[in-house]
Amino acid sequence: MKKPILCLDFDGVCHAYTSGWKGAEVIPDDAVPGLFEFLERAAPHFDIQVFSSRSNHPGGVEAMQAWFEQQHGRWLAENGQ
What we know:
Layout: E1 5-9, H1 35-42, E2 47-51, H2 60-78
């Protein structure tokens, strides 16, 4: 049985977006507090998908992927994982 899809907006839900729009490939802010804890709890129950208007711009998807990898790595290091 497939898991239901949980869609999350990138800017303001995953990425704090306190600096505002700087371009599709520029993502200067950190993760929203509690993002990775939430994702860990949700992942067993949902197929998590992230969407953004950045996806329609060249390099936007790759920038979001790189941001997630960097932020997740930092979160893991800070939490002793």
